[in-house]
Amino acid sequence: MKNENPFDDLEIDPRLSGRELTKRIRKIIEKAPADERAEIQANWEKLTLREDQRIHHALLAHPRPESASAREVSTLRTNVPLPTSKLQNTAVSLTRADVIVWDEAAVSVQHLIPRYDQGK
Amino acid sequence: MSRMKWWSPAHQALLNALDAQDVVPGLFLLLTGGALQANEKDTRRLRDWPEALHDSASWPILAAALTSGTRDHEVWNQAQAQGFTDRAAHHNALLLLELSDRLTQGRRFDESLRCVRWATTNWAQLYESGYLAALTKDLDPQLPEDATAEIVSGLLCPALEERRQRVIEELRKSSADMDAAAITHSQDWFDVWRSFTPAAQRAAARIRQTVAAYDQSVSQLVAQQMTKAVSDLDLTTAQDLEIEAPLRQTWRQIEALRFPAPAMAEMIGTLISTLWSLRRVGRDTTPAFNTLVDLGILLAPHLGRTIKSGESIGQNSRLGDLYVFRAERERGEARREYLVLALDFCPGHRNASMLMSYLHLHDVQVGMQDLAKTIRPASIKATLKAVHGHLKLAEAAFPLNEDLAGHTERFQKACLKNKIDPRSFDEK
Amino acid sequence: MATFKRAVGIDLGTTNSSIAMMSPMGDELVLWEDRFKRKTFPSVLGWDPDKRAFIHGWEAWNRRGLDPQPLTSIKRKMGNGQTVSLAGQDMTPADVSAEIVKAMTGLAATTFSKVVEDHETIIDAAVITVPAYFDALQIEETRRAGELAGIEVLGLLQEPTAAAMYHAWKHGIEDGIFLVYDLGGGTFDVSVIRSLHGEYQVLGIDGDNFLGGDDFDKRLAEHFRLRLIEQGYSLDLDVSKSEDAARFFLLTKVAQEVKESLSASEVQYVARRDIFDDCAGNPVTLEFEYSRTEFEELVGDLVNQSIACCHRAIELAMSRADVSASQIEHVLMVGGSTRVPLVRQAVQDAFCAGQTLATQLRLDEPDTCVALGAALRASTLAALEITQDSTTVALSSSTYTHEDSVDVIGTVLNVEGVRTVALINQGGDVHAIVRAQDDGSFEFENVRLPETGTYRFTLDFSDSAGEPLGSVPFFVHSGAPEASRPTGSALSNPSVLAKDIGLEVVRETRSERHVLLARGSSLPAEGEFTFYTADHSGAVILRLYQSRFPIRSIHLTLAEGTPTGTPVRLKIQVDESMAMVAEGEIAGQRFWAQIEPPPPRELKDWAEIEALLDDCDRASSELWGDELSRFREATEHLIAGIRETVRTDPDKLQALVVRLEDVVSDYRNRDTHLTPAWHRFETLLDAVKRIVWRGDGKRQLGLNTEEWRARLGAIENAGRSAYESSDQPAWSQVFNQVQATWETLKQDEFMFAAPTDPVAYVQMLATSLRAVIDNFRSSFHAFAISPNPETAALQHGELHRLEVMLKEKVEGPLALLDLENTPPDRLKPELDRLFETANHLRRQFDRLPTLGLVSR
Question: Which of C197, C321, C489 lies closest to A19 in CB terms?
Answer without folding.
Answer: C197
